[in-house]
Known about the structure:
Layout: H1 21-33, H2 48-60, E1 64-68, H3 71-82, E2 89-93, H4 99-106, E3 110-114, H5 124-131, E4 138-142, H6 151-161, E5 164-168, E6 176-177, E7 180-181, E8 188-192, E9 205-209, H7 212-221, H8 238-241, H9 256-267, H10 269-288, E10 302-303, E11 308-312, H11 318-330, E12 336-337, H12 363-369, E13 372-376, H13 383-400
Parallel strand pairs: 2-3, 2-4, 4-5, 5-8
Antiparallel strand pairs: 1-9, 6-7, 6-10, 8-9, 11-13, 12-13
Helix pairs in contact: 1-9, 2-9, 3-4, 3-7, 5-6, 10-13, 11-13
Amino acid sequence: MADSEKKRFTKDFTLQEPICEEGIEKALAILRSGKLHRYNVDPGEKGEAAQLEEEFAAYMGKKYCLACASCGSAMYLALKSVGVKPGDTVLCNAYTLAPVPGAIENAGAQIELVEIGDDYTIDLDDLEKKAAAPGAKWFMLSHMRGHIANMDRIMEICNAHGLVLIEDCAHTMGATWDGKKSGAFGTVACFSTQTYKHMNSGEGGLMVTDDPDLIARAIIYSGSYMLYERHTARPEMAVFESIKTMVPNYSCRMDNLRAAILRPQLEILDNQCARWNKRYRILEEGLTAIQGITCPQRDPRENYVGSSIQFSLYGQDEPTIRRFLAECLAQGVELKWFGNKEPVGFTSAYESWRYFGRLPHLPNTLRILSVMCDMRIPLTFTADDCCTILAVIIEVSAKVIK
Ligand SMILES: Cc1ncc(COP(=O)(O)O)c(C=O)c1O
């Protein structure tokens, strides 16, 4: 086929929608006031960061919330605040992204990686086996790329083995399992508001919990100085009294500017999630129909947010997959691949976290990652754009996939 006859996609896979007008107005008001620091408020005034925390706690149906500099810092503070000590072991699914093992390492802990299955979620049998091992107490479950494991079984395993669950909801803000919000299952859950996530403040993280001691520690760790009274999604002041000089300051705060941008986005979050899913379903249906491409089976109880899509090229060797990716890219469709031996861009594979020293051989995870492709679905893409992307992938697949 001549190059001029090939289907072509021309939009940018990293282009998000602009910040909504209300967010821009609020940001300008903060900039004009000069009061960007979260504790720079008048007596009795509730700052933007405090209001965001109240509103996000209410959205999640949780008592407490803390806004942080990033999800990575929120996860680190969550691990410290829940009681992880240097040398402890934290179980974690092996399909996740670099900030997750990074938070575990930052807390001084060792990682115990758990296999994944063909639906890209954690392998529950491997989890059960590792949960039963001596010393297993902490479990960081990363809902990577929005794939939510069977949370009923997860909670059964956690309860049976006394595992404390910390949820990484960087990709599941707005998602539910069997009607319950992702992030409402664990002792503590962390969310990202980094540009490519479901709310965009450039960088940012949110932590939620119902545990008053945990959140009090997290607030002080985050760098509240002795100003924690200015938080409003917090427990009574008495909870802070006994710990206020025992918890160091790690300076991981969110500022009022970012909180101001996020508050109006929270109001439209559910609608945005529905818009993502409309695009996801077009792509999923189209991809499933292509010979050689497999989309994971999703449980009907999983109400995910399809802000990205993953699929497997089972049975294809590395040269074929590389050619498939290169030809898609040449026609404007940017796909990532989790099978790279060395980490590329945002798609780090667990074997590259060599700072932990010992890394297990996880044959199933390696097999699954070796054929897994990944594509962002920004809301700047229309339904027609999704059809053009599919047309490119159909064309390339017919030529490349064996
Ligand atoms: C699965 C996952 N967890 C956590 C994070 C950390 O988020 P942040 O960039 O806000 O630190 C990311 C970031 O991309 C992620 O992909």
